Amino acid sequence: MTLTPDSTAPIELVAPTGAALVATLDVITAKALISGVFLRPGSPGSPPSIDPEYVGQSDVDWDSQRPCRGDGVVIYIDENGCEWLEHQLVRKDSL
Fold first, then answer.
1. What is the spatial distance between Cα 19 and Cα 9, in angstroms, rounded to a whole number?
2. Helix (H, G, I), strand (E, B), or coil: what is residue 93?
């Protein structure tokens, strides 16, 4: 999406379907809290597994938040949950 040099006002972009954009797909570092780690026997012929017992809470490092990229551009989410790459977005007034 390119803007002409005489563009002065922001232009609203939407998904190619006309759906409103509501989010970016982001990656955030978090620590999932656990109450312990357990060695569980495997089924016959399978090795044992080491499993954490999650407590259902995470400490999120919001300063680590970064947008996910596809083909080098930000991925946007529309109101229907569909993902769109930045270059797929269209002007709202063009629909």
1. 21
2. helix
Q: What pTM did the predictor assign?
A: 0.73
For the CA atoms of 1, 92, 66, 2, the dihedral, rounded to the nearest 10 degrees, stands at 10
Distances (CA, A) of 89 to 16, 26, 53, 61, 79: 6, 18, 42, 30, 14
C-alpha span between 60 and 58 (Å, rounded): 6
Task: Give 21-61 pLDDT, tens digit per residue.
Answer: 999 999 999 999 999 999 999 899 999 999 999 999 999 99
Token couple for 50: 């080491």
Q: Which residues contact 90 (CB under 8 A, 6 or more apart)?
A: 1, 13, 14, 15, 16
Q: 73: buried, middle or exposed (CB in 10 Å: 19+, 13-18, 0-12)? A: middle
Q: What confidence category does residue 82 fall into, taking pLDDT thresholds of 50, 70 and 90?
A: very high
Nearest partner of 21 among 94, 95, 93, 90, judged by Cα: 90
